[in-house]
Description:
heterodimer, A: mainly alpha, MetI-like fold, flat, B: mainly alpha, 2 domains, two-stranded antiparallel sheet, 13 helices, globular
Amino acid sequence: MGVAQRSEGFGSRLGKLATLARQNPLGTVGLIIILTFVFLAIFASWIAPYSPTALSGNPDQGLSSAHIFGTERVGRDIFSRFLYGGRVSLSVAVISVLLGGSVGMIIGIMSGYSGGIIDSTIQRSVDTAIAFPPLLLLLIITTVLGPSYRTIVFALTLAVIPGVIRIVRGAVLSEKNNQYVEAARASGAAGPRIVLRHLLPNVVALGIIVMTTLLGGIILAEAALAFLGLGIPNAASWGRDVSDARSSFPYHIPSALFPGAAITLTVLGFNVLGDSIRDIADPRLRGSR
Amino acid sequence: MQTFILRRLIIGIVILFVLSVTVFLLMRIVPGDPAIRRCGLDCTKPKIAQIHKDLGLDKPYFPVELRRGPPFVSFSSDSQYGTYMSSILTGDLGTSTFNQKPVGPQVIDRMPVTIEIMVLTLIFTIIVGIPFGALSAVFRNSPIDYVVRSTSVLGLAVPSFWVATLVLVIPSDLWGYAPIIGRKVSLINDPIGNFKQVAPAAAVLALGSAAGVMRLTRSSLLEVMRQDYMRTARAKGLTQSAVVIRHGLKNSMIPVVTVLGLQVSGLLGGAIIVEQIFTLPGLGLFTLQALLAKDYDVVQTMTLYAGATVVLLNLLVDVSYAWLDPRIRYS
Lengths: 289, 331
Protein backbone atom coordinates (compact mmCIF):
# COMPACT_ATOMS: atom_id res chain seq x y z
CA MET A 1 0.00 0.00 0.00
CA GLY A 2 1.40 3.33 -0.99
CA VAL A 3 1.13 6.59 0.88
CA ALA A 4 -1.64 7.79 -1.43
CA GLN A 5 -3.81 4.78 -0.64
CA ARG A 6 -3.19 5.10 3.07
CA SER A 7 -4.30 8.71 3.24
CA GLU A 8 -7.35 7.84 1.19
CA GLY A 9 -8.10 5.09 3.68
CA PHE A 10 -7.87 7.56 6.52
CA GLY A 11 -10.04 10.05 4.69
CA SER A 12 -12.78 7.53 4.01
CA ARG A 13 -12.67 6.32 7.59
CA LEU A 14 -13.15 9.88 8.76
CA GLY A 15 -15.96 10.19 6.27
CA LYS A 16 -17.58 7.08 7.70
CA LEU A 17 -17.35 8.55 11.17
CA ALA A 18 -18.94 11.77 9.95
CA THR A 19 -21.80 9.81 8.37
CA LEU A 20 -22.23 7.87 11.59
CA ALA A 21 -22.36 11.14 13.52
CA ARG A 22 -24.88 12.64 11.13
CA GLN A 23 -27.17 9.63 11.28
CA ASN A 24 -27.07 9.50 15.04
CA PRO A 25 -27.27 13.11 16.18
CA LEU A 26 -28.37 12.23 19.69
CA GLY A 27 -25.52 9.84 20.25
CA THR A 28 -23.05 12.36 18.95
CA VAL A 29 -24.38 14.95 21.38
CA GLY A 30 -24.03 12.41 24.16
CA LEU A 31 -20.46 11.69 23.16
CA ILE A 32 -19.64 15.40 23.11
CA ILE A 33 -21.13 15.87 26.58
CA ILE A 34 -19.13 12.98 27.97
CA LEU A 35 -15.89 14.08 26.37
CA THR A 36 -16.46 17.60 27.72
CA PHE A 37 -16.94 16.37 31.25
CA VAL A 38 -13.96 14.05 31.01
CA PHE A 39 -11.86 16.93 29.73
CA LEU A 40 -13.08 19.20 32.53
CA ALA A 41 -12.38 16.55 35.12
CA ILE A 42 -8.88 15.81 33.90
CA PHE A 43 -7.86 19.45 33.49
CA ALA A 44 -9.78 20.70 36.51
CA SER A 45 -6.66 21.92 38.25
CA TRP A 46 -5.88 24.21 35.30
CA ILE A 47 -9.41 25.40 34.56
CA ALA A 48 -10.77 25.87 38.05
CA PRO A 49 -10.40 29.41 39.40
CA TYR A 50 -10.05 28.18 42.99
CA SER A 51 -9.25 25.02 44.88
CA PRO A 52 -12.43 23.04 45.59
CA THR A 53 -11.74 23.11 49.30
CA ALA A 54 -10.64 26.73 49.62
CA LEU A 55 -12.97 29.13 51.40
CA SER A 56 -12.67 31.56 48.57
CA GLY A 57 -15.66 33.77 49.23
CA ASN A 58 -18.53 34.59 51.51
CA PRO A 59 -20.97 31.74 52.07
CA ASP A 60 -24.13 31.37 50.02
CA GLN A 61 -23.37 33.97 47.42
CA GLY A 62 -25.25 34.11 44.16
CA LEU A 63 -23.71 34.05 40.72
CA SER A 64 -21.05 36.68 40.21
CA SER A 65 -18.02 37.36 38.08
CA ALA A 66 -15.71 36.10 40.79
CA HIS A 67 -17.75 32.95 41.34
CA ILE A 68 -19.68 32.10 38.20
CA PHE A 69 -21.80 29.49 39.93
CA GLY A 70 -21.82 31.19 43.30
CA THR A 71 -20.53 29.89 46.59
CA GLU A 72 -21.90 27.19 48.81
CA ARG A 73 -22.61 27.09 52.51
CA VAL A 74 -19.07 27.44 53.86
CA GLY A 75 -17.83 29.69 51.07
CA ARG A 76 -16.26 27.27 48.58
CA ASP A 77 -16.59 28.03 44.90
CA ILE A 78 -19.37 25.98 43.33
CA PHE A 79 -17.86 26.08 39.85
CA SER A 80 -14.56 24.63 41.04
CA ARG A 81 -16.34 21.86 42.86
CA PHE A 82 -18.40 21.31 39.71
CA LEU A 83 -15.16 20.70 37.81
CA TYR A 84 -13.37 18.55 40.39
CA GLY A 85 -16.42 16.47 41.26
CA GLY A 86 -16.23 14.64 37.97
CA ARG A 87 -12.92 13.05 38.86
CA VAL A 88 -14.36 10.77 41.46
CA SER A 89 -17.67 10.04 39.76
CA LEU A 90 -16.27 9.29 36.33
CA SER A 91 -13.28 7.25 37.43
CA VAL A 92 -15.27 5.17 39.90
CA ALA A 93 -17.96 4.47 37.32
CA VAL A 94 -15.58 3.50 34.54
CA ILE A 95 -13.46 1.22 36.72
CA SER A 96 -16.47 -0.49 38.31
CA VAL A 97 -18.18 -1.11 34.99
CA LEU A 98 -15.00 -2.40 33.35
CA LEU A 99 -14.23 -4.74 36.24
CA GLY A 100 -17.80 -5.85 36.81
CA GLY A 101 -18.48 -6.20 33.12
CA SER A 102 -15.40 -8.34 32.52
CA VAL A 103 -16.05 -10.62 35.48
CA GLY A 104 -19.70 -10.84 34.56
CA MET A 105 -18.89 -11.73 30.96
CA ILE A 106 -16.49 -14.48 31.96
CA ILE A 107 -18.96 -16.01 34.40
CA GLY A 108 -21.84 -15.58 31.98
CA ILE A 109 -19.97 -17.31 29.18
CA MET A 110 -18.93 -20.14 31.49
CA SER A 111 -22.45 -20.50 32.79
CA GLY A 112 -24.14 -20.51 29.41
CA TYR A 113 -21.58 -22.72 27.77
CA SER A 114 -21.39 -25.41 30.47
CA GLY A 115 -25.06 -25.76 31.11
CA GLY A 116 -26.21 -28.32 33.64
CA ILE A 117 -25.61 -27.91 37.35
CA ILE A 118 -23.02 -25.16 37.05
CA ASP A 119 -25.41 -23.11 34.99
CA SER A 120 -28.36 -23.68 37.34
CA THR A 121 -26.36 -22.84 40.43
CA ILE A 122 -25.01 -19.66 38.93
CA GLN A 123 -28.44 -18.68 37.68
CA ARG A 124 -30.05 -19.16 41.09
CA SER A 125 -27.30 -17.08 42.68
CA VAL A 126 -27.88 -14.35 40.12
CA ASP A 127 -31.62 -14.46 40.80
CA THR A 128 -30.95 -14.08 44.52
CA ALA A 129 -28.59 -11.20 43.92
CA ILE A 130 -31.13 -9.42 41.76
CA ALA A 131 -33.80 -9.89 44.45
CA PHE A 132 -31.73 -7.62 46.65
CA PRO A 133 -32.72 -3.96 46.42
CA PRO A 134 -29.52 -2.62 44.84
CA LEU A 135 -29.19 0.59 46.83
CA LEU A 136 -29.59 -1.33 50.06
CA LEU A 137 -26.85 -3.74 49.06
CA LEU A 138 -24.52 -0.88 48.22
CA LEU A 139 -25.32 0.88 51.49
CA ILE A 140 -24.66 -2.26 53.52
CA ILE A 141 -21.36 -3.04 51.85
CA THR A 142 -20.06 0.51 52.18
CA THR A 143 -21.11 0.77 55.81
CA VAL A 144 -19.71 -2.61 56.73
CA LEU A 145 -16.38 -2.06 54.99
CA GLY A 146 -16.15 1.65 55.66
CA PRO A 147 -16.44 4.23 52.88
CA SER A 148 -13.34 4.60 50.75
CA TYR A 149 -12.45 4.66 47.06
CA ARG A 150 -11.71 0.92 47.02
CA THR A 151 -14.84 -0.03 48.96
CA ILE A 152 -17.11 1.90 46.67
CA VAL A 153 -15.53 0.50 43.53
CA PHE A 154 -15.85 -2.97 45.06
CA ALA A 155 -19.51 -2.47 45.95
CA LEU A 156 -20.40 -1.03 42.55
CA THR A 157 -18.55 -3.82 40.75
CA LEU A 158 -20.56 -6.36 42.72
CA ALA A 159 -23.75 -4.57 41.75
CA VAL A 160 -22.84 -4.69 38.05
CA ILE A 161 -21.95 -8.37 37.86
CA PRO A 162 -25.34 -10.17 38.19
CA GLY A 163 -27.04 -8.18 35.44
CA VAL A 164 -24.15 -8.72 33.05
CA ILE A 165 -24.10 -12.45 33.80
CA ARG A 166 -27.76 -12.73 32.97
CA ILE A 167 -27.56 -10.94 29.66
CA VAL A 168 -24.35 -12.62 28.51
CA ARG A 169 -25.63 -16.06 29.48
CA GLY A 170 -28.81 -15.45 27.50
CA ALA A 171 -26.77 -14.49 24.46
CA VAL A 172 -24.53 -17.53 24.82
CA LEU A 173 -27.53 -19.82 25.04
CA SER A 174 -29.13 -18.46 21.90
CA GLU A 175 -25.83 -18.53 20.02
CA LYS A 176 -25.25 -22.09 21.13
CA ASN A 177 -28.49 -23.12 19.52
CA ASN A 178 -27.57 -21.48 16.26
CA GLN A 179 -24.16 -22.99 16.08
CA TYR A 180 -25.19 -26.50 16.94
CA VAL A 181 -27.63 -26.53 14.09
CA GLU A 182 -24.90 -25.43 11.72
CA ALA A 183 -22.40 -27.85 13.15
CA ALA A 184 -24.82 -30.73 12.84
CA ARG A 185 -25.28 -30.01 9.19
CA ALA A 186 -21.58 -29.53 8.57
CA SER A 187 -18.66 -31.83 9.07
CA GLY A 188 -19.31 -32.39 12.74
CA ALA A 189 -15.65 -32.33 13.65
CA ALA A 190 -14.16 -29.33 15.41
CA GLY A 191 -17.65 -28.45 16.68
CA PRO A 192 -16.68 -26.76 19.91
CA ARG A 193 -13.94 -24.75 18.25
CA ILE A 194 -16.33 -23.35 15.63
CA VAL A 195 -18.78 -22.46 18.35
CA LEU A 196 -16.09 -20.66 20.30
CA ARG A 197 -14.80 -18.75 17.33
CA HIS A 198 -18.23 -17.44 16.35
CA LEU A 199 -19.76 -17.21 19.78
CA LEU A 200 -17.12 -15.27 21.61
CA PRO A 201 -16.90 -12.21 19.35
CA ASN A 202 -20.68 -11.76 19.29
CA VAL A 203 -21.02 -12.18 23.00
CA VAL A 204 -18.13 -9.89 23.78
CA ALA A 205 -19.64 -7.25 21.51
CA LEU A 206 -22.92 -7.59 23.39
CA GLY A 207 -21.05 -7.32 26.64
CA ILE A 208 -19.44 -4.08 25.60
CA ILE A 209 -22.79 -2.62 24.60
CA VAL A 210 -24.25 -3.64 27.95
CA MET A 211 -21.38 -1.99 29.75
CA THR A 212 -21.98 1.35 28.04
CA THR A 213 -25.63 1.26 29.03
CA LEU A 214 -24.68 0.51 32.62
CA LEU A 215 -22.36 3.49 33.04
CA GLY A 216 -25.15 6.01 33.55
CA GLY A 217 -26.80 3.95 36.25
CA ILE A 218 -23.53 3.42 38.09
CA ILE A 219 -22.85 7.14 38.15
CA LEU A 220 -26.30 7.66 39.65
CA ALA A 221 -25.63 4.96 42.22
CA GLU A 222 -22.31 6.44 43.26
CA ALA A 223 -23.91 9.87 43.54
CA ALA A 224 -26.72 8.44 45.68
CA LEU A 225 -24.16 6.82 47.99
CA ALA A 226 -22.31 10.11 48.29
CA PHE A 227 -25.60 11.86 48.96
CA LEU A 228 -26.43 9.55 51.83
CA GLY A 229 -23.06 10.23 53.38
CA LEU A 230 -21.33 7.03 52.32
CA GLY A 231 -19.30 8.41 49.48
CA ILE A 232 -15.56 8.85 49.33
CA PRO A 233 -14.53 11.05 52.21
CA ASN A 234 -12.57 14.24 51.58
CA ALA A 235 -13.13 14.28 47.85
CA ALA A 236 -15.14 16.91 45.99
CA SER A 237 -18.26 14.99 45.12
CA TRP A 238 -21.40 16.06 43.30
CA GLY A 239 -23.65 13.81 45.36
CA ARG A 240 -22.37 15.13 48.65
CA ASP A 241 -22.67 18.71 47.47
CA VAL A 242 -26.36 18.17 46.86
CA SER A 243 -26.65 16.64 50.30
CA ASP A 244 -24.84 19.58 51.88
CA ALA A 245 -27.16 21.97 50.09
CA ARG A 246 -30.14 20.14 51.48
CA SER A 247 -28.96 20.06 55.05
CA SER A 248 -27.90 23.66 55.39
CA PHE A 249 -30.51 26.23 56.29
CA PRO A 250 -31.49 28.71 54.82
CA TYR A 251 -31.62 27.01 51.47
CA HIS A 252 -29.53 28.34 48.61
CA ILE A 253 -30.52 27.34 45.10
CA PRO A 254 -27.13 27.39 43.30
CA SER A 255 -25.60 25.01 45.87
CA ALA A 256 -28.23 22.44 45.07
CA LEU A 257 -28.69 23.17 41.39
CA PHE A 258 -25.25 22.90 39.85
CA PRO A 259 -23.87 19.67 41.34
CA GLY A 260 -27.09 17.87 40.49
CA ALA A 261 -27.07 19.33 36.98
CA ALA A 262 -23.57 17.93 36.55
CA ILE A 263 -24.75 14.46 37.51
CA THR A 264 -27.77 14.73 35.23
CA LEU A 265 -25.77 15.86 32.22
CA THR A 266 -23.13 13.16 32.64
CA VAL A 267 -25.70 10.40 33.03
CA LEU A 268 -27.67 11.82 30.12
CA GLY A 269 -24.57 11.75 27.96
CA PHE A 270 -23.79 8.13 28.78
CA ASN A 271 -27.39 6.98 28.38
CA VAL A 272 -27.85 8.66 25.05
CA LEU A 273 -24.49 7.42 23.79
CA GLY A 274 -25.31 3.92 24.98
CA ASP A 275 -28.64 4.02 23.16
CA SER A 276 -26.96 5.08 19.96
CA ILE A 277 -24.27 2.42 20.16
CA ARG A 278 -26.95 -0.18 20.75
CA ASP A 279 -29.02 1.03 17.82
CA ILE A 280 -26.01 1.00 15.52
CA ALA A 281 -24.69 -2.36 16.59
CA ASP A 282 -27.91 -4.29 16.60
CA PRO A 283 -31.17 -2.66 15.60
CA ARG A 284 -32.97 -5.76 16.88
CA LEU A 285 -32.13 -4.67 20.41
CA ARG A 286 -33.97 -1.41 19.92
CA GLY A 287 -37.28 -3.01 20.72
CA SER A 288 -36.26 -4.38 24.07
CA ARG A 289 -35.43 -1.30 26.14
CA MET B 1 -51.30 -23.34 36.14
CA GLN B 2 -51.09 -24.77 39.64
CA THR B 3 -47.77 -26.46 39.03
CA PHE B 4 -46.46 -23.24 37.57
CA ILE B 5 -47.32 -21.27 40.68
CA LEU B 6 -46.05 -24.02 42.96
CA ARG B 7 -42.74 -24.19 41.17
CA ARG B 8 -42.28 -20.43 41.34
CA LEU B 9 -43.23 -20.43 45.02
CA ILE B 10 -40.64 -23.04 45.89
CA ILE B 11 -37.95 -21.21 43.96
CA GLY B 12 -38.98 -18.04 45.80
CA ILE B 13 -38.59 -19.71 49.18
CA VAL B 14 -35.17 -21.04 48.24
CA ILE B 15 -34.11 -17.58 47.14
CA LEU B 16 -35.33 -16.10 50.41
CA PHE B 17 -33.45 -18.72 52.38
CA VAL B 18 -30.23 -18.00 50.51
CA LEU B 19 -30.87 -14.29 50.96
CA SER B 20 -31.27 -14.69 54.71
CA VAL B 21 -28.02 -16.64 55.01
CA THR B 22 -26.20 -14.12 52.83
CA VAL B 23 -27.42 -11.13 54.83
CA PHE B 24 -26.64 -12.96 58.07
CA LEU B 25 -23.07 -13.64 56.99
CA LEU B 26 -22.67 -10.13 55.60
CA MET B 27 -23.48 -8.67 59.01
CA ARG B 28 -20.93 -10.88 60.66
CA ILE B 29 -17.95 -10.02 58.53
CA VAL B 30 -18.03 -6.56 60.05
CA PRO B 31 -14.57 -5.76 61.26
CA GLY B 32 -14.64 -4.90 64.91
CA ASP B 33 -16.42 -6.44 67.80
CA PRO B 34 -19.75 -4.83 68.73
CA ALA B 35 -19.14 -5.83 72.31
CA ILE B 36 -16.05 -3.62 72.50
CA ARG B 37 -18.04 -0.69 71.19
CA ARG B 38 -20.70 -1.32 73.78
CA CYS B 39 -18.68 -1.69 76.91
CA GLY B 40 -17.07 1.69 76.75
CA LEU B 41 -13.78 2.79 78.24
CA ASP B 42 -12.91 0.41 81.04
CA CYS B 43 -13.14 -2.80 79.09
CA THR B 44 -12.05 -6.01 80.70
CA LYS B 45 -12.09 -9.53 79.33
CA PRO B 46 -14.86 -10.79 81.65
CA LYS B 47 -16.96 -7.74 80.79
CA ILE B 48 -16.60 -8.43 77.06
CA ALA B 49 -17.49 -12.07 77.63
CA GLN B 50 -20.59 -11.00 79.53
CA ILE B 51 -21.69 -8.68 76.73
CA HIS B 52 -21.09 -11.48 74.27
CA LYS B 53 -23.44 -13.63 76.27
CA ASP B 54 -26.04 -10.87 76.54
CA LEU B 55 -26.04 -10.22 72.84
CA GLY B 56 -26.04 -13.92 72.07
CA LEU B 57 -22.71 -13.66 70.29
CA ASP B 58 -21.17 -16.66 72.05
CA LYS B 59 -23.53 -19.04 70.32
CA PRO B 60 -22.42 -20.89 67.21
CA TYR B 61 -23.38 -19.27 63.92
CA PHE B 62 -25.52 -22.03 62.48
CA PRO B 63 -27.52 -24.96 63.86
CA VAL B 64 -25.51 -27.28 61.63
CA GLU B 65 -21.79 -26.71 61.40
CA LEU B 66 -18.82 -28.53 59.94
CA ARG B 67 -16.00 -29.64 62.19
CA ARG B 68 -12.42 -30.47 61.34
CA GLY B 69 -12.20 -33.78 63.16
CA PRO B 70 -14.88 -36.44 63.63
CA PRO B 71 -17.83 -36.32 63.87
CA PHE B 72 -17.37 -33.68 61.08
CA VAL B 73 -20.81 -32.21 61.68
CA SER B 74 -22.18 -30.69 64.87
CA PHE B 75 -25.72 -29.78 65.67
CA SER B 76 -26.79 -27.12 68.14
CA SER B 77 -30.26 -26.27 69.28
CA ASP B 78 -29.29 -22.71 70.06
CA SER B 79 -27.48 -20.80 67.34
CA GLN B 80 -27.29 -17.20 66.15
CA TYR B 81 -28.90 -18.04 62.86
CA GLY B 82 -31.60 -19.98 64.71
CA THR B 83 -32.37 -16.97 66.88
CA TYR B 84 -32.39 -14.73 63.85
CA MET B 85 -34.80 -16.95 61.93
CA SER B 86 -37.15 -17.52 64.85
CA SER B 87 -37.28 -13.81 65.60
CA ILE B 88 -38.20 -13.06 62.00
CA LEU B 89 -40.82 -15.75 61.81
CA THR B 90 -42.43 -15.04 65.16
CA GLY B 91 -42.25 -11.29 64.76
CA ASP B 92 -40.44 -10.72 68.03
CA LEU B 93 -37.71 -8.50 66.71
CA GLY B 94 -36.11 -7.36 69.94
CA THR B 95 -35.03 -3.88 70.77
CA SER B 96 -33.14 -1.60 68.48
CA THR B 97 -29.86 -0.40 69.81
CA PHE B 98 -30.00 3.05 68.34
CA ASN B 99 -33.25 4.31 69.78
CA GLN B 100 -33.86 1.77 72.52
CA LYS B 101 -37.42 1.10 71.44
CA PRO B 102 -38.79 -2.31 70.49
CA VAL B 103 -38.35 -2.95 66.80
CA GLY B 104 -41.56 -4.79 65.99
CA PRO B 105 -44.01 -2.00 66.82
CA GLN B 106 -41.79 0.53 65.05
CA VAL B 107 -41.85 -1.54 61.89
CA ILE B 108 -45.61 -1.87 62.03
CA ASP B 109 -45.99 1.82 62.69
CA ARG B 110 -43.77 2.83 59.80
CA MET B 111 -44.86 0.30 57.24
CA PRO B 112 -47.96 2.16 56.03
CA VAL B 113 -45.89 5.23 55.15
CA THR B 114 -43.50 3.30 52.94
CA ILE B 115 -46.29 1.24 51.40
CA GLU B 116 -48.18 4.41 50.63
CA ILE B 117 -45.14 5.95 48.96
CA MET B 118 -44.62 2.88 46.79
CA VAL B 119 -48.27 2.49 45.85
CA LEU B 120 -48.61 6.17 45.00
CA THR B 121 -45.41 6.01 42.96
CA LEU B 122 -46.70 3.04 41.01
CA ILE B 123 -50.02 4.77 40.40
CA PHE B 124 -48.28 7.92 39.14
CA THR B 125 -45.98 5.80 36.99
CA ILE B 126 -48.82 3.92 35.37
CA ILE B 127 -51.04 6.96 34.88
CA VAL B 128 -48.28 8.97 33.24
CA GLY B 129 -46.07 6.33 31.69
CA ILE B 130 -48.48 4.12 29.79
CA PRO B 131 -50.75 6.67 28.11
CA PHE B 132 -47.87 8.90 27.04
CA GLY B 133 -45.87 5.94 25.86
CA ALA B 134 -48.85 4.77 23.83
CA LEU B 135 -49.45 8.22 22.36
CA SER B 136 -45.80 8.43 21.47
CA ALA B 137 -45.98 5.11 19.63
CA VAL B 138 -49.22 5.82 17.80
CA PHE B 139 -48.15 9.28 16.68
CA ARG B 140 -44.64 8.21 15.85
CA ASN B 141 -42.16 10.96 14.94
CA SER B 142 -44.73 13.66 15.63
CA PRO B 143 -44.00 16.53 18.02
CA ILE B 144 -45.67 14.67 20.85
CA ASP B 145 -43.38 11.73 20.19
CA TYR B 146 -40.31 13.92 20.48
CA VAL B 147 -41.56 15.56 23.64
CA VAL B 148 -42.22 12.18 25.23
CA ARG B 149 -38.90 10.77 24.14
CA SER B 150 -36.88 13.73 25.39
CA THR B 151 -38.78 13.81 28.67
CA SER B 152 -38.17 10.12 29.24
CA VAL B 153 -34.49 10.35 28.41
CA LEU B 154 -34.20 13.24 30.85
CA GLY B 155 -36.26 11.40 33.46
CA LEU B 156 -33.89 8.46 33.38
CA ALA B 157 -30.84 10.65 33.80
CA VAL B 158 -32.02 12.88 36.61
CA PRO B 159 -31.04 11.71 40.10
CA SER B 160 -34.09 11.39 42.33
CA PHE B 161 -32.31 12.89 45.30
CA TRP B 162 -31.51 15.98 43.26
CA VAL B 163 -35.09 16.58 42.18
CA ALA B 164 -36.28 15.96 45.72
CA THR B 165 -33.72 18.41 47.06
CA LEU B 166 -34.73 21.01 44.49
CA VAL B 167 -38.39 20.48 45.40
CA LEU B 168 -37.41 21.34 48.96
CA VAL B 169 -34.89 24.05 48.21
CA ILE B 170 -36.48 26.11 45.45
CA PRO B 171 -39.84 26.90 47.08
CA SER B 172 -38.06 27.60 50.31
CA ASP B 173 -35.47 29.92 48.83
CA LEU B 174 -37.88 31.76 46.57
CA TRP B 175 -41.10 31.83 48.56
CA GLY B 176 -40.22 30.79 52.10
CA TYR B 177 -42.38 27.67 51.88
CA ALA B 178 -41.74 24.71 54.18
CA PRO B 179 -43.48 21.32 53.92
CA ILE B 180 -44.71 19.15 56.81
CA ILE B 181 -41.82 17.21 58.20
CA GLY B 182 -41.43 14.26 60.49
CA ARG B 183 -44.72 13.33 62.01
CA LYS B 184 -47.04 10.94 60.36
CA VAL B 185 -50.22 12.40 58.92
CA SER B 186 -52.89 9.75 58.99
CA LEU B 187 -54.59 8.84 55.75
CA ILE B 188 -57.91 8.24 57.40
CA ASN B 189 -58.05 11.32 59.57
CA ASP B 190 -56.57 13.84 57.18
CA PRO B 191 -56.44 12.52 53.62
CA ILE B 192 -55.52 15.85 52.05
CA GLY B 193 -52.73 16.55 54.49
CA ASN B 194 -51.49 13.01 54.06
CA PHE B 195 -51.51 13.37 50.30
CA LYS B 196 -49.67 16.68 50.50
CA GLN B 197 -47.00 15.01 52.57
CA VAL B 198 -46.51 11.87 50.51
CA ALA B 199 -47.25 13.10 46.99
CA PRO B 200 -44.00 15.05 46.44
CA ALA B 201 -41.95 12.01 47.43
CA ALA B 202 -43.96 9.71 45.19
CA ALA B 203 -43.85 12.19 42.31
CA VAL B 204 -40.07 12.39 42.51
CA LEU B 205 -39.70 8.62 42.42
CA ALA B 206 -42.29 8.33 39.68
CA LEU B 207 -40.20 10.60 37.44
CA GLY B 208 -37.60 7.93 36.97
CA SER B 209 -39.87 4.93 36.72
CA ALA B 210 -42.45 6.66 34.51
CA ALA B 211 -39.65 7.55 32.12
CA GLY B 212 -38.69 3.90 31.84
CA VAL B 213 -42.29 2.79 31.43
CA MET B 214 -42.90 5.42 28.73
CA ARG B 215 -39.99 4.15 26.68
CA LEU B 216 -40.91 0.53 27.14
CA THR B 217 -44.60 1.09 26.33
CA ARG B 218 -43.60 2.94 23.21
CA SER B 219 -41.22 0.32 21.90
CA SER B 220 -43.45 -2.55 22.93
CA LEU B 221 -46.52 -1.03 21.29
CA LEU B 222 -44.54 -0.25 18.14
CA GLU B 223 -43.43 -3.87 18.05
CA VAL B 224 -46.97 -5.13 18.50
CA MET B 225 -48.46 -2.77 15.94
CA ARG B 226 -46.22 -4.22 13.27
CA GLN B 227 -47.71 -7.64 13.76
CA ASP B 228 -49.93 -9.21 11.14
CA TYR B 229 -52.92 -9.56 13.42
CA MET B 230 -53.07 -5.80 13.78
CA ARG B 231 -53.32 -5.46 10.02
CA THR B 232 -56.06 -8.07 10.02
CA ALA B 233 -57.97 -6.16 12.67
CA ARG B 234 -57.81 -3.00 10.65
CA ALA B 235 -58.77 -4.86 7.49
CA LYS B 236 -61.79 -6.21 9.33
CA GLY B 237 -62.91 -2.61 9.60
CA LEU B 238 -62.15 -1.75 13.22
CA THR B 239 -61.34 1.87 13.86
CA GLN B 240 -57.73 2.73 14.62
CA SER B 241 -58.41 3.46 18.28
CA ALA B 242 -60.32 0.21 18.76
CA VAL B 243 -57.46 -1.67 17.17
CA VAL B 244 -54.86 0.00 19.32
CA ILE B 245 -56.70 -0.26 22.60
CA ARG B 246 -58.35 -3.62 22.29
CA HIS B 247 -55.53 -5.58 20.71
CA GLY B 248 -52.40 -3.53 20.68
CA LEU B 249 -52.23 -2.21 24.19
CA LYS B 250 -53.19 -5.40 25.96
CA ASN B 251 -50.60 -7.45 24.18
CA SER B 252 -47.88 -4.89 24.64
CA MET B 253 -48.45 -4.78 28.39
CA ILE B 254 -46.56 -8.00 29.08
CA PRO B 255 -43.04 -6.58 29.07
CA VAL B 256 -44.32 -3.46 30.82
CA VAL B 257 -45.79 -5.50 33.67
CA THR B 258 -42.53 -7.40 33.94
CA VAL B 259 -40.54 -4.22 34.16
CA LEU B 260 -42.90 -2.72 36.73
CA GLY B 261 -42.31 -5.78 38.87
CA LEU B 262 -38.57 -5.45 38.45
CA GLN B 263 -38.73 -1.78 39.34
CA VAL B 264 -40.04 -2.55 42.81
CA SER B 265 -36.59 -3.39 44.10
CA GLY B 266 -35.32 -0.10 42.72
CA LEU B 267 -38.26 1.70 44.33
CA LEU B 268 -37.35 0.24 47.71
CA GLY B 269 -33.97 1.91 47.39
CA GLY B 270 -35.59 5.08 46.12
CA ALA B 271 -37.91 5.09 49.13
CA ILE B 272 -34.86 5.24 51.38
CA ILE B 273 -33.69 8.35 49.59
CA VAL B 274 -36.96 10.29 49.46
CA GLU B 275 -37.87 9.34 53.02
CA GLN B 276 -34.54 10.75 54.12
CA ILE B 277 -34.95 13.97 52.15
CA PHE B 278 -38.57 14.67 53.01
CA THR B 279 -38.14 13.22 56.50
CA LEU B 280 -41.05 10.83 56.14
CA PRO B 281 -41.23 8.37 59.05
CA GLY B 282 -41.15 5.20 56.96
CA LEU B 283 -39.20 1.96 56.83
CA GLY B 284 -36.60 3.34 54.45
CA LEU B 285 -35.50 6.06 56.82
CA PHE B 286 -35.64 3.54 59.66
CA THR B 287 -33.29 1.19 57.83
CA LEU B 288 -30.94 4.02 56.97
CA GLN B 289 -30.79 5.25 60.56
CA ALA B 290 -30.18 1.73 61.81
CA LEU B 291 -27.42 1.27 59.25
CA LEU B 292 -25.66 4.50 60.14
CA ALA B 293 -25.97 3.66 63.84
CA LYS B 294 -24.47 0.23 63.10
CA ASP B 295 -27.53 -1.58 64.44
CA TYR B 296 -26.92 -4.52 62.17
CA ASP B 297 -29.70 -6.70 63.54
CA VAL B 298 -32.32 -4.26 62.40
CA VAL B 299 -30.63 -3.87 59.02
CA GLN B 300 -30.55 -7.64 58.67
CA THR B 301 -34.25 -7.91 59.34
CA MET B 302 -35.22 -5.04 57.07
CA THR B 303 -33.10 -6.37 54.23
CA LEU B 304 -34.81 -9.71 54.47
CA TYR B 305 -38.22 -8.06 54.45
CA ALA B 306 -37.23 -6.02 51.44
CA GLY B 307 -35.97 -9.12 49.65
CA ALA B 308 -39.14 -10.99 50.54
CA THR B 309 -41.25 -8.17 49.12
CA VAL B 310 -39.33 -8.20 45.88
CA VAL B 311 -39.53 -11.99 45.54
CA LEU B 312 -43.26 -12.03 46.29
CA LEU B 313 -44.00 -9.22 43.87
CA ASN B 314 -41.99 -10.86 41.12
CA LEU B 315 -43.89 -14.05 41.78
CA LEU B 316 -47.13 -12.11 41.33
CA VAL B 317 -45.76 -10.65 38.12
CA ASP B 318 -44.82 -14.11 36.87
CA VAL B 319 -48.25 -15.43 37.67
CA SER B 320 -50.01 -12.53 36.01
CA TYR B 321 -47.66 -13.00 33.07
CA ALA B 322 -48.82 -16.59 32.72
CA TRP B 323 -52.40 -15.40 33.01
CA LEU B 324 -51.95 -12.70 30.36
CA ASP B 325 -50.27 -14.98 27.87
CA PRO B 326 -51.54 -18.56 27.88
CA ARG B 327 -48.52 -19.69 25.91
CA ILE B 328 -46.36 -19.20 28.96
CA ARG B 329 -48.45 -21.38 31.25
CA TYR B 330 -47.41 -24.52 29.53
CA SER B 331 -43.74 -23.83 29.00
